[in-house]
Design a protein that fits this description.
The chain has 166 residues and is an all-alpha fold. The two termini are 21 Å apart. The model has no long low-confidence stretch (mean pLDDT 93).
Length: 166
């Protein structure tokens, strides 16, 4: 019972944090830079594999119309637009981070965060090419490369925050 309550409480907290992270954004085109990835990675680090629960719930609630996505956007159209792949990549990232945080050792934890970030990039990049018709190079230049420095900082912050919470 206590574990279930902890999962519910953490799920609510991470849905709120991921949503708040969407309001902290810089308007890049076609994909904005947000703080969502920090909280997605952190959900996996803190909740382990159960970190997919708040991430999946966040995406489901946003898809049915609650204004949870970046800057209050909502609806299934967002999942079909240029940012949809990144949002779907959040689920893969939370799972990967969570699975590797269940392993002992800081190397596994750091690898999980790195691989989770790569999963977001791969899903986002792939869908950006499909949804916009961009060529591979342009999608890489607009949908991945500008985000690497900020995501490196967010990845390291995830590691430090989780370590502090532990």
């Amino acid at each position: 019972m206590e574990e279930r309550l902890r999962t519910i409480t953490r799920t609510a907290a991470f849905v709120a944090l991921i949503t708040a992270g969407g309001w902290i954004s810089l308007p890049f085109f076609p994909v904005p830079l947000t703080m969502q990835t920090l909280f997605v990675l952190l959900s996996g680090a803190v909740m382990k594999r159960k970190g997919v629960i708040p991430v999946g719930l966040y995406i489901a609630l946003g898809a049915v119309g609650l204004p949870l996505f970046h800057n209050g956007a909502a609806g299934p159209g967002l999942l079909l637009g240029p940012t949809g792949g990144y949002l779907i990549g959040f689920i893969a990232a939370a799972y990967i981070v969570g699975a590797l945080y269940e392993k002992a050792g800081e190397k596994c934890h750091l690898a999980g965060i790195a691989l989770g970030t790569v999963a977001i990039y791969l899903c986002g990049y792939s869908w950006l090419v499909v949804s916009t018709g961009m060529n591979l190079w342009l999608a890489l230049v607009t949908g991945v490369l500008p985000f690497i420095p900020g995501d490196a900082v967010k990845a390291y912050a995830t590691y430090l925050i989780e370590k502090r919470l532990r």
